[in-house]
Amino acid sequence: MDLTHLTSLSITQFRNLTMTDCPLSAGFNLLVGDNGAGKTSVLEAIYYLSTLKSFRTQTHNDLIARYPDRDRGCAVVRAGVHQDDHDFFMALERCKDQFRLRLGREEVPRASLFVAHLPVLALHAQSDDLVLAGPEFRRKFIDRMAFYLFADFVPAYAQFARMLKQRNAALRTGQSTEIWDPLFIQYGERLNEQRVAALDLLKTVLPQVFEALAPQLSVDMQFHPGHKSGLDLSEALARNRERDREMGQTLIGPQRADILFTLNDYAFKSFASRGQIKVFTAALTLATAHIWQAQRGKRAVLLFDDFMSEFDAHHSSALLHYLSNMGHQVFISAVDRQQIDFPFDAVFRLDAGQISAVV
Ligand SMILES: Nc1ncnc2c1ncn2[C@@H]1O[C@H](COP(=O)(O)OP(=O)(O)OP(=O)(O)O)[C@@H](O)[C@H]1O
């Protein structure tokens, strides 16, 4: 079993943070501090090291420290990692237009070789997008799960995206799509299979997790593959060929897939309260962690930003109780230590981007 956890963290020029070799607990870490102190930024830096993406901006340059009186340099995040009885360092340096990535002493030439190493899951203010925003957020969610489950997810996804681009280019210029269709179908079907398999796993795990957090409510989900149900992708594509030609783009397929989440048989989006959505996204995070661990032996690091917002006392204690039985490394941020009644293994205070341990 892979007992991945971070042992230490050094951060420079990432948002407002400066921290050097801050030792971390393998259990529960609490980050406290006033508004704007840097709590979310610490969680964001850990997530960035895992995924090379931020959970609150798509603009990498937002992450590099801004100074009123000098040019910006490069953001650096470096973590000590314990994994499979080994200790090593993961480091990333983000300059204006490029990444430098290192695993131990080795430079890593490609992002896809780096992002598989540190499984991290985060619950944050934007997690609601999964339920409330467009289908691309749900596709991203299920694809991230599939990425950790299937070794051929990245090549299948990349090839499908390439075929879609070529097919759309042909449609825009009034050319035949015949040469692109077989591979569009082949990779599109593989993508569908992987998404369905990931969702089937989620269907087996999520209801139990949700019930532990919110008894008396039931959740379910339905996958929409992006074409008419009952048809396979090749039939659907053939039937839609004329409309694709008229519109100059591919109107059906995995690029249009979506997931419908329901609460007590009603669509979440139109029925659930904000707190119920938050509990649901927390349950999705925990269910994903269970699935990665059961299927790939990967124990994810779990991040919970601004833990107390939206949860009432009952739900926050149910979530903490559930987490304490999972045995994962957890980072939680909150404005005040008194907000959360829980025996944390380590407590840190953030103050204007500087971190210190609270004894
Ligand atoms: N690129 C940047 N360079 C320097 N400072 C930045 C940059 N981006 C954001 N900041 C500042 O970093 C600080 C930390 O923000 P962060 O969101 O991490 O705080 P927080 O402790 O989570 O606050 P809150 O409790 O209000 O959510 C803020 O004061 C913000 O204005």
UniProtKB/TrEMBL annotation:
GO process annotations (BP): DNA replication; DNA synthesis involved in DNA repair; double-strand break repair; SOS response
Record domain RecF/RecN/SMC N-terminal: where: 6-340
Segments crossing the lipid bilayer: none
Keyword vocabulary terms for this entry: ATP-binding, Cytoplasm, DNA damage, DNA repair, DNA replication, DNA-binding, Nucleotide-binding, SOS response
Binding of ATP, residues: 33-40
GO molecular function, one term: single-stranded DNA binding
A single GO cellular-component term on record: cytoplasm
Subcellular location(s) per record: Cytoplasm
PANTHER family: DNA REPLICATION AND REPAIR PROTEIN RECF
Recorded family membership: Belongs to the RecF family.
Biological role: The RecF protein is involved in DNA metabolism; it is required for DNA replication and normal SOS inducibility. RecF binds preferentially to single-stranded, linear DNA. It also seems to bind ATP.
Name listed for the protein in its UniProt record: DNA replication and repair protein RecF
